[in-house]
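User: Before I run my own analysis I want an independent prediction to cross-check against. Here's the chain; please return only the structure tokens and, at the end, one sentence I can use as a sanity check.
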Amino acid sequence: MGNRNLIQYLVVTLKGMAMGAADVVPGVSGGTIAFISGIYEELIYSINQIGTAVVKTLPREGISAAWKQVNGKFLLSLFLGIALSVITLARFISWLLENEPVLLWSFFFGLVVASVIFVARAISSWKLATLLMLVLGAAIAYYITQLPPVENTSSLPYLFLSGALAICAMILPGISGAFILVLLGSYKTVLDAVHERDLLIIGTVFLGALFGLLSFARLLKWMFQHYKDLTLALLTGFIIGSLSKIWPWKVVLESRIFDEKRIPVLEENVSPLSYPGEPQLLWAILLAIAGFSLIFMLEKLAAKK
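Assistant: Structure tokens:
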């Protein structure tokens, strides 16, 4: 871990860009992309080292040792990719969401279905407990995607909690952090704070996210070390449960306007045959196959390296 050359760090940045592109779509998690691109456990381990490095290593051994301990080059390359993607692709993906939703969701649907197979294959032995964990994960994720959104709130303790929960969702495969903020009713408050440069609200959400990231990464690292198969089954379940959220043909029952953008908060999945708009069935199937194939192409490339 950490012994990469420049080209390999550029590959990590590209993986970060893919994570950022997924996080822009409400319903697709960057954690899913991290998992299928083979960097999930390294990401969790590296984040987990931050607290120890800051508290113990930094005062005793200095910046260089702390940077090495947190796998700093890897984290910097990855988060640079995520930031680049959000800055450059956010507008394009938002345009696709508004103008070609069926085609965009079809691509991600194929990609996420392949992710289920990819993650499930990493489970070394299937037992009753593993199957139960898979069903539990699927039920939790499905339940979250069906929850009605809470009214907008600007209470600071609530925003701290929102930041913590959203970042946990971002690093969990299958559940989108942006979607959690919409559900909690904090999306508009956070968006307005960014536009108005309200440092108190931005700082509160950031501290919540930092707290959530460091504490949740510790829990995930412990789970991977002690119950790897059960953890993988739970994560596979999360991805399966999120499939209803990214079904390409849906009818919007309720939407809200955030920053002049209409964001659907309550939707109903329908068959392509009863979809009120143009179902674009052929293109949808082709893009779903493209998304599905992309995962296994990436896997083959990783295996060659």
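Sanity check: The longest strand covers residues 250-258.
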